[in-house]
Amino acid sequence: MDSKIFSPKITAVMESLRKLPTIGKKSSQRLTLHLLDKSPETAVAIANSLLDAAENIKKCKYCQSLTEEDICQICSSQSRDESKLCIIESMLDLIAIEEAGFFKGKYFVLNGRISPLDGIGPNELKLDILEQIITDRDISEIILAISPTVEGETTAHFISQMIDKSIKISRIGFGVPFGGELEYLDQQTLIHAFNARTNI
User: Which NCBIfam families does this UniProt record tie to the protein (predicted)?
Assistant: First the structure.
Protein backbone atom coordinates (compact mmCIF):
# COMPACT_ATOMS: atom_id res chain seq x y z
CA MET A 1 0.00 0.00 0.00
CA ASP A 2 2.87 2.40 0.86
CA SER A 3 4.26 2.06 -2.66
CA LYS A 4 0.99 3.41 -4.11
CA ILE A 5 1.10 6.53 -1.93
CA PHE A 6 4.79 7.30 -1.50
CA SER A 7 7.70 7.46 -3.91
CA PRO A 8 10.08 4.46 -4.10
CA LYS A 9 12.76 6.28 -2.08
CA ILE A 10 10.36 7.21 0.73
CA THR A 11 8.95 3.68 0.75
CA ALA A 12 12.49 2.28 0.98
CA VAL A 13 13.19 4.39 4.09
CA MET A 14 9.95 3.23 5.72
CA GLU A 15 10.71 -0.41 4.98
CA SER A 16 14.22 -0.03 6.40
CA LEU A 17 12.90 1.48 9.63
CA ARG A 18 10.37 -1.34 10.02
CA LYS A 19 13.26 -3.78 10.39
CA LEU A 20 14.05 -2.19 13.77
CA PRO A 21 12.59 -3.62 17.01
CA THR A 22 9.20 -2.14 18.06
CA ILE A 23 8.89 -0.09 14.84
CA GLY A 24 5.69 -0.95 12.99
CA LYS A 25 4.07 0.46 9.86
CA LYS A 26 2.62 3.61 11.44
CA SER A 27 5.77 4.41 13.41
CA SER A 28 7.96 4.02 10.34
CA GLN A 29 5.67 6.36 8.38
CA ARG A 30 5.72 9.01 11.12
CA LEU A 31 9.49 8.86 11.55
CA THR A 32 10.20 8.96 7.83
CA LEU A 33 7.85 11.86 7.09
CA HIS A 34 9.09 13.84 10.09
CA LEU A 35 12.74 13.42 9.14
CA LEU A 36 12.28 14.17 5.46
CA ASP A 37 9.69 16.94 5.75
CA LYS A 38 10.42 18.68 9.06
CA SER A 39 14.06 17.88 9.75
CA PRO A 40 16.09 16.82 6.70
CA GLU A 41 19.33 17.99 8.36
CA THR A 42 18.63 15.60 11.25
CA ALA A 43 18.07 12.79 8.75
CA VAL A 44 21.49 13.45 7.22
CA ALA A 45 23.14 13.61 10.65
CA ILE A 46 21.55 10.31 11.71
CA ALA A 47 22.54 8.65 8.44
CA ASN A 48 26.14 9.84 8.81
CA SER A 49 26.33 8.70 12.44
CA LEU A 50 24.96 5.26 11.58
CA LEU A 51 27.35 4.88 8.65
CA ASP A 52 30.32 5.91 10.78
CA ALA A 53 29.31 3.51 13.57
CA ALA A 54 28.67 0.62 11.17
CA GLU A 55 32.14 1.06 9.70
CA ASN A 56 34.03 1.48 12.98
CA ILE A 57 32.22 -0.39 15.77
CA LYS A 58 33.30 -3.97 16.49
CA LYS A 59 33.08 -6.60 19.23
CA CYS A 60 35.48 -6.42 22.18
CA LYS A 61 37.93 -9.31 21.86
CA TYR A 62 37.13 -10.36 25.43
CA CYS A 63 33.59 -9.56 26.54
CA GLN A 64 32.01 -9.27 23.06
CA SER A 65 30.37 -5.92 23.80
CA LEU A 66 30.33 -3.20 21.15
CA THR A 67 33.34 -0.90 21.09
CA GLU A 68 35.54 1.21 18.83
CA GLU A 69 38.72 -0.34 20.25
CA ASP A 70 39.94 -3.94 20.27
CA ILE A 71 39.32 -4.03 24.02
CA CYS A 72 36.40 -2.12 25.58
CA GLN A 73 36.72 0.33 28.49
CA ILE A 74 35.34 -2.11 31.07
CA CYS A 75 37.67 -4.95 30.08
CA SER A 76 40.70 -2.64 30.02
CA SER A 77 39.86 -0.99 33.36
CA GLN A 78 42.26 -1.79 36.22
CA SER A 79 39.65 -0.78 38.80
CA ARG A 80 37.19 -3.57 37.92
CA ASP A 81 37.15 -6.80 39.95
CA GLU A 82 38.44 -9.42 37.52
CA SER A 83 37.57 -12.26 39.91
CA LYS A 84 33.84 -11.77 39.25
CA LEU A 85 32.43 -12.40 35.79
CA CYS A 86 28.80 -11.59 34.96
CA ILE A 87 27.39 -13.39 31.93
CA ILE A 88 24.58 -11.49 30.22
CA GLU A 89 22.53 -11.80 27.05
CA SER A 90 22.88 -8.37 25.49
CA MET A 91 24.39 -4.90 25.62
CA LEU A 92 21.04 -3.66 26.95
CA ASP A 93 21.52 -5.89 30.00
CA LEU A 94 25.03 -4.49 30.48
CA ILE A 95 23.67 -0.94 30.32
CA ALA A 96 20.94 -1.75 32.87
CA ILE A 97 23.44 -3.25 35.34
CA GLU A 98 25.99 -0.47 34.87
CA GLU A 99 23.36 2.24 35.37
CA ALA A 100 22.28 0.57 38.62
CA GLY A 101 25.91 1.01 39.73
CA PHE A 102 26.29 -1.96 42.08
CA PHE A 103 28.37 -4.45 40.06
CA LYS A 104 32.11 -3.78 39.79
CA GLY A 105 33.26 -6.96 38.09
CA LYS A 106 33.59 -7.74 34.40
CA TYR A 107 31.17 -9.07 31.80
CA PHE A 108 30.72 -11.50 28.97
CA VAL A 109 27.97 -10.62 26.51
CA LEU A 110 26.39 -13.65 24.84
CA ASN A 111 24.52 -11.58 22.25
CA GLY A 112 21.70 -14.11 22.32
CA ARG A 113 20.51 -17.38 23.86
CA ILE A 114 20.79 -21.00 22.79
CA SER A 115 17.79 -21.64 20.56
CA PRO A 116 18.01 -24.65 18.22
CA LEU A 117 14.77 -23.64 16.47
CA ASP A 118 16.42 -20.35 15.48
CA GLY A 119 19.69 -22.00 14.56
CA ILE A 120 21.54 -20.51 17.55
CA GLY A 121 23.93 -22.86 19.29
CA PRO A 122 27.05 -22.55 21.49
CA ASN A 123 29.21 -21.52 18.52
CA GLU A 124 26.98 -18.55 17.70
CA LEU A 125 27.26 -17.34 21.31
CA LYS A 126 31.09 -17.48 21.19
CA LEU A 127 31.22 -19.82 24.18
CA ASP A 128 34.70 -20.91 23.11
CA ILE A 129 35.89 -17.36 23.86
CA LEU A 130 34.09 -17.47 27.22
CA GLU A 131 35.77 -20.77 28.05
CA GLN A 132 39.19 -19.30 27.24
CA ILE A 133 38.52 -16.25 29.45
CA ILE A 134 37.57 -18.51 32.36
CA THR A 135 40.73 -20.57 31.82
CA ASP A 136 43.05 -17.55 31.60
CA ARG A 137 41.69 -15.50 34.51
CA ASP A 138 41.65 -16.14 38.24
CA ILE A 139 37.85 -16.07 38.52
CA SER A 140 36.21 -16.83 41.88
CA GLU A 141 32.56 -16.35 40.89
CA ILE A 142 30.55 -16.46 37.70
CA ILE A 143 27.14 -14.78 37.85
CA LEU A 144 24.59 -15.94 35.30
CA ALA A 145 22.38 -12.89 34.73
CA ILE A 146 20.32 -14.59 32.05
CA SER A 147 16.58 -14.06 31.63
CA PRO A 148 14.43 -16.94 32.96
CA THR A 149 12.94 -17.88 29.61
CA VAL A 150 12.99 -21.40 28.16
CA GLU A 151 15.98 -20.46 26.00
CA GLY A 152 17.60 -18.67 28.93
CA GLU A 153 17.28 -21.74 31.15
CA THR A 154 18.84 -23.90 28.42
CA THR A 155 21.70 -21.43 28.00
CA ALA A 156 22.34 -21.14 31.75
CA HIS A 157 22.38 -24.93 32.13
CA PHE A 158 24.78 -25.40 29.22
CA ILE A 159 27.19 -22.76 30.55
CA SER A 160 27.07 -24.12 34.11
CA GLN A 161 28.03 -27.57 32.79
CA MET A 162 31.11 -26.27 30.98
CA ILE A 163 32.54 -24.40 33.99
CA ASP A 164 35.04 -25.99 36.37
CA LYS A 165 33.30 -27.04 39.59
CA SER A 166 35.93 -25.24 41.66
CA ILE A 167 34.48 -21.91 40.50
CA LYS A 168 31.41 -20.61 42.30
CA ILE A 169 28.46 -20.27 39.91
CA SER A 170 25.41 -18.24 40.90
CA ARG A 171 22.18 -17.25 39.21
CA ILE A 172 20.26 -14.03 39.83
CA GLY A 173 16.88 -14.65 41.37
CA PHE A 174 14.47 -12.46 43.32
CA GLY A 175 12.21 -10.21 41.28
CA VAL A 176 12.81 -11.69 37.85
CA PRO A 177 9.62 -13.47 36.70
CA PHE A 178 9.77 -16.45 34.35
CA GLY A 179 9.82 -15.14 30.82
CA GLY A 180 11.03 -11.72 31.99
CA GLU A 181 13.80 -9.75 30.31
CA LEU A 182 16.58 -8.20 32.41
CA GLU A 183 16.65 -4.94 30.47
CA TYR A 184 13.08 -4.07 31.56
CA LEU A 185 13.70 -4.36 35.31
CA ASP A 186 13.92 -1.23 37.43
CA GLN A 187 17.20 -0.62 39.25
CA GLN A 188 15.99 -1.67 42.71
CA THR A 189 14.57 -4.95 41.41
CA LEU A 190 17.82 -5.60 39.56
CA ILE A 191 19.88 -4.95 42.69
CA HIS A 192 17.66 -7.30 44.73
CA ALA A 193 17.94 -9.94 42.00
CA PHE A 194 21.73 -9.85 42.26
CA ASN A 195 21.75 -9.80 46.06
CA ALA A 196 19.38 -12.77 46.16
CA ARG A 197 21.34 -14.85 43.65
CA THR A 198 21.53 -18.57 44.36
CA ASN A 199 24.40 -20.97 43.87
CA ILE A 200 24.15 -23.58 41.13
Answer: recR (TIGR00615)
